[in-house]
Design a protein that fits this description.
- The structure is a single chain.
- The chain is an alpha+beta fold and 934 residues long.
- Helices cover 19% and strands 32% of the residues.
- The chain contains 17 helices and 50 strands.
- Strands 2, 3, 5, 6, 8, 10, 11 and 13 form an eight-stranded mixed beta sheet that branches. Strands 22-23-25-24-26-27-28-29 form an eight-stranded mixed beta sheet, with helices on both faces.
- Helix 15 links the parallel strand 40 and strand 41.
- It is globular.
Length: 934
């Protein structure tokens, strides 16, 4: 079977990582010993020289500027030379802090400072040489750096050099160039960038690396290996993928193959090739020599997308490539999509990926078609082609209509080449790591590129995946093909997971994928990186009976503050509070020893919490920031998922939550909390002979789902004990509802999973923004301005107009079936007037009364409450004592993390927070209050 990359059996590595810090020799260049006993050696001790800053008129990326930087011998400025290598004694000694992320260090408002010029030996505690760690904030410019080491061999020997990196490199060994990146490879984060077989002479062998650096993050690593060690390392990384110097060529221009081809093929051998068109038809074939800069001819091939297949021995390799000028890629596909769509317009799903091509097309102008942009362009072009030719495999951008606001939401799906023709397949949900990782810009005007907002592809354009690193997608695809897993990339509305709207979108995307594809519900896995690791654990804790396992890489557990920040809400949603929920969900934590954005102690501490709570958790510690370790963090996740299935129906359940909207798992549901806003905990055991034993904290009522109990524990009339006493339970609708504690004063309304607050929750279900018609003309005018702010923010964030009506336009169906967000005062005789009169909220000219709290003086409030027309829907109100106070601390009400927020204008005329609260269970009294913010 043809494969996406190098095919090697999945077996254990024979190489043992061996990191050796060299010792500085008299020349000031570290000496690193390499012997035939070392299967794989990572060079971590280097003489570093730089940065050499490019001239001010070269501080923009073009291929010409890159070529000029690489052609120039910058070492001559310090009395040295690239080749023949001439490097004098070290001249500097600057302390390097490898444990801090300088990109996150406040600069005090003074801006980046010029970095110290380094000419010294640096012992890296990590596998990669990182200019980011070396030069810090002062590296925010285009530059060149060098690194040198002397490889000491006891005898003449063959060695295999493996160069990885995310920037163009040039490597000399004993003054001979053994590897050189092609122009335009900037930002091309390759795990196996250059492979070469070299001869080491007995004694010292001078190794020099030159790195062309973009602003900030630039890294490379160099390994020396035996043949067996190199083979194992290549296998571990998922094989070799990058064998083309350029992925987009002009008509009749040949494809240039990289020097890696000579590494993979036997000396003097010929390599057979095939060129396959997007429709699957063979377009060309032949052989090329596996030496030098081999070229594959493309004469006579029409413009369009193709795939090159190379056959070397028993292995096969494939590469997509495009024939046509770079500036023509987007217009060509857009025209094809317009013609193919016909009357379907924006509903034509194969062409949703045009957004990415449009953005790349815009970036290419005047800057050159870099290799990373080519990869992105080909990923999007393949998405379009897969749809046009109805290819079920590969990447597809899919959509669904969100009931929340009618927005056409998107998700990206990868179906592996190895997927079964029929039957369900396992899927990995790749949880977003931040609120902006899958969006180009927050500003829709910046994305219109002169087109109308009504353009069929406008919404897809604004929600494109162009900001995703193509290598990230391709690496996942590589392992999906090897292991036979599909991969789902949801958007989460570009929000963090404390936000109910993000969770709603994740679940909508997963439900849509299950409708669109045959997915094995027993083998759905979660995987996330950094904050995405925390988000994946949050999702697994909230819905532990839906996922088979979770893998978190470089876990970040810190919460993202809301614009209006409620500390009680943040504490209640801390993933460390609900570790016990993962009792039946295997957890894997993978963390780099020097990952800069979240320290490794976060995974260590979470792992300890897991073990303390009886959770099956594995901790894998890697060197550096994980991606440069000898073990591959992608493979580690995939191997962890192998063979794991969702737990069927356990007899013992632990569940904790601060939100009733995520009420329980398997056969236990928490119906009410004794103290809303705080975490409630239940540990339930279904024992034999119909006895259910419960231990609970801050839980007033639970429901036992009798039809979901393990068969061995389903008695005719289960006996329930809670905290050592017999619980009062009543049955009905297959549930056994048990009172466990005091929930406060009785009321017709109680907090439940449908309506429990905070205000943000009202935006995680279908809602309508209602503009009040009450009050005087000035008040109505200001209410309209606040409603405009809310709507403008929503459109800027979600690229769709939210439902908005005047209060007298609301229908009875909307009043009962939707969440209502009222801005201002409801007009007399409107459907909302009577409903507002029933709320425990009274606003006069000189005070605001909410529940039994009175706030004297002028001010404003936002409060969520059950809709009197339907207690399972919200009525939320933004009100004020007068027009002068009617404003918002932040226009994004969907991230207000409390039931009630009160503020008033400060002397500067800005909304200043007074405080935030939660309603009690009966929606009558304000209980937990966070500290007020200035």
């Amino acid at each position: 079977m043809r494969v996406f990359c190098l095919v090697l059996a999945c077996v254990a590595m024979v190489a043992v990582p061996f990191l050796l810090s060299g010792r500085p020799a008299q020349s000031g260049i570290p000496e690193v010993a390499f012997t035939g006993e070392d299967a794989l050696l990572t060079v971590t001790s280097w003489r570093v020289i730089g940065p050499f800053k490019l001239p001010d008129d070269r501080q923009v990326y073009t291929i010409a500027n890159e070529k000029e930087a690489f052609d120039r011998d910058w070492l001559a400025q310090v009395g040295g030379a690239e080749a023949p290598s001439r490097i004098g004694r070290a001249t500097t000694k600057v302390e390097i802090d490898f444990d801090s992320d300088t990109a996150l260090v406040p600069d005090g408002g003074g801006g980046p400072k010029p970095p110290a010029f380094l000419d010294q030996v640096v012992d890296f505690p990590i596998p990669q040489v990182s200019s980011h760690m070396l030069f810090g904030l002062g590296s925010d410019f285009f530059k060149v750096m060098y690194a040198a080491a002397d490889i000491v061999s006891g005898e003449d020997a063959e060695a295999h050099v493996i160069v990885s990196g995310n920037s163009p490199t040039k490597v000399w060994l004993n003054d001979a160039v053994v590897a050189a990146s092609p122009e335009g490879s900037v930002g091309n984060a390759q795990q196996l960038q250059h492979l070469a077989k070299v001869r080491l002479k007995a004694g010292k062998n001078r190794l020099v690396v030159k790195l062309f650096c973009f602003p900030l993050l630039n890294e490379f690593s160099v390994r020396l290996a035996t043949a067996e060690g190199a083979e194992a390392h290549i296998r571990e990384r998922g094989g070799v993928r990058d064998l083309l110097d350029r992925l987009a060529v002009a008509p009749d221009e040949p494809l240039r193959l990289t020097d890696n081809l000579g590494y993979l093929a036997a000396p003097g051998a010929d390599v057979r090739y095939e060129i396959v068109a997007a429709d699957g038809m063979l377009a060309a074939h032949g052989v090329v020599p596996a030496t030098g800069k081999a070229e594959v001819p493309t004469r006579g091939l029409a413009q369009g997308l193709y795939r090159l297949w190379l056959y070397i021995g028993e292995e096969s390799y494939s590469h997509p490539f495009y024939i046509g000028r770079p500036e023509g890629v987007y217009p060509s596909y857009r025209q094809r999509c317009v013609e193919a769509a016909g009357d379907a317009g924006a509903q034509y799903e194969p062409c949703l990926a045009l957004a990415g091509l449009a953005e790349i097309h815009k970036d290419v102008e005047g800057k050159g078609f870099r290799q990373d942009w080519m990869k992105k362009a080909l990923v999007y072009a393949e998405m379009v082609e897969n749809g046009l030719y109805d290819n079920p495999n590969g990447f597809r951008m899919r959509s669904y209509r969100s009931p929340i606001d009618g927005q056409r939401q998107f998700y990206l799906f990868y179906r592996p080449e190895t997927a079964p023709q029929a039957g369900p397949m396992p899927v990995i949900v790749e949880v977003p790591h931040n609120a902006y990782g899958t969006i180009v810009s927050q500003d829709p005007d910046a994305l219109r590129t002169g087109e109308s907002k009504d353009d069929p592809y406008y919404k897809a354009k604004t929600q494109s995946l162009v900001n995703r690193d193509a290598n990230y997608l391709l690496r996942l695809a590589r392992f999906c093909d090897e292991y036979g897993y599909a991969c789902l990339f949801p958007f989460a509305r570009f929000r963090q997971f404390e936000d109910p709207l993000a969770v709603a979108d994740m679940r909508e995307a997963l439900a849509a994928a299950k409708r669109d594809y045959a997915i094995d519900a027993e083998r759905v896995y979660l995987r996330g990186f950094c904050r995405g690791g925390g988000n994946s654990l949050r999702l697994a804790e909230d819905f532990p009976d839906e996922f088979a396992a979770v893998s978190a890489i470089n876990l970040n557990v810190n919460q993202e503050p809301f614009p209006v920040s409620n500390h009680d809400w943040e504490a209640a949603n801390d993933i460390r509070n609900a570790v016990g929920n993962l009792l039946h969900t295997p957890v894997q934590l993978v963390h780099g020893s020097h990952f800069p954005h979240s320290p490794v102690r976060q995974s260590r501490e979470f792992h300890s919490l897991c073990r303390k709570n009886g959770v099956r958790a594995e901790l894998e510690l890697l060197a550096g920031d994980t991606q440069w370790d000898d073990r591959d963090e992608y493979r580690i996740s995939f191997e962890f998922f192998e063979g794991k299935r969702r737990e069927a129906m356990p007899s013992e359940i632990s569940y904790a939550t601060g939100q009733l909207k995520y009420p329980g798992a398997w056969w236990v549901r928490i119906n009410r909390l004794s103290r809303p806003g705080e975490v409630g905990r239940v540990h339930a055991v279904a024992e034999s002979r119909g006895h259910i034993r419960i231990e609970a904290e801050n839980v007033a009522e639970v429901a036992i789902l009798r039809d979901r109990l393990p068969k061995a524990n389903t008695g005719a009339s289960p006996r329930v004990t809670a905290n050592g006493a017999t619980a009062k339970c009543v049955g009905g609708d297959g549930r056994l509802v048990c009172e466990l504690g005091d929930a406060g004063a009785p009321s017709a309304l109680v907090k439940n999973g449908m309506v429990e607050g905070p205000l943000a929750h009202a935006f995680a279900a279908p809602f309508v923004l209602a503009l009040g018609s009450g009050g005087d003309a000035a008040f109505r005018e200001q209410a309209a301005a606040v409603a405009d702010d809310i709507q403008t923010y929503w459109e800027g964030k979600h690229f769709v107009s939210l439902r908005r009506k005047a209060d007298h336009e609301l229908t009875e169906e909307e009043m009962r079936g939707m969440n209502i967000i009222l801005v201002g005062e409801a007009g007399e005789g409107t459907p909302l007037r009577g409903a507002c009169d029933d709320l425990p909220l009274t606003v006069s000219e000189d005070s605001i009364k909410i529940g039994d709290y009175v706030f004297p003086g002028e001010g404003a409030a936002a409060a969520a409450y059950p809709n009197p027309h339907n207690p399972e829907r919200y009525l939320a109100v933004v009100a004020a004592t007068g027009a002068g106070e009617l404003s918002l601390p932040a226009a994004d009400l969907a991230r207000y993390g409390a039931d009630v927020t009160v503020w008033r204008k400060n002397p500067e005329g800005k909304a200043a927070l007074v405080g935030e609260w939660f309603w009690d269970n009966a929606w009558l009294h304000l209980t937990a209050a966070s500290r007020a913010l200035p």
